[in-house]
TrEMBL record:
Protein name: Nucleotidase
GO molecular function (one): 5'-nucleotidase activity
Organism: uncultured Solirubrobacteraceae bacterium
SUPFAM superfamilies xrefs: HAD-like
Catalytic residues of the enzyme: 6, 8
Amino acid sequence: MRIAIDIDSTLHHYWDRLSDAALRRFGIDLPYEEQLDWGITRLRPDQLRICIEETHCSQAILAGEPYPDAAAIVSRWRDEGHFIHITSHRGGEALEATAAWLAQIGVPYDDLHCSEDKVARCVELGIDLLIDDSPLNLARAIENGILVATISHPWNRDLCEEEDVICARDWRGLAEQLDPLLARRARVRP
Ligand SMILES: [Mg+2]
């Protein structure tokens, strides 16, 4: 199978980084449990941009703590012959640090892409399964006939209830649901 995997809030817990930056720089609290949709309206667009830039600098990227089991599961999937595409909204300038971080935490991949339009890249690569926390990306992927899965977060709860999204609290839960599908649709790279 050809699998696309997002980074922020999928391979590591990004929200605390962002909310720490918002609090420190602007005194604005962004409680995780209250973030029920994709829009971050408590910050002005320029404030949000500054917080994202800060959390996507090389130092911050390299300090990312992966979710338990994430690296081992992705690594196993690749060993089993699945194609792994790592995809992120991070800017192109974050590519090098992101590649170094993936090597540091032991996530192997066949393709790494930083861009605003993740789903277009997934379509280009013939991706079968997208794992991403963004409800916008998940909905667009569904429209394009791509199977979707996510780590459960407050902002994708509604979509997970309404649409056909494989949703789990953690990577172990994701693997339990996805392994049978992957076994049925095993596909040798590339
Ligand atoms: Mg994400």
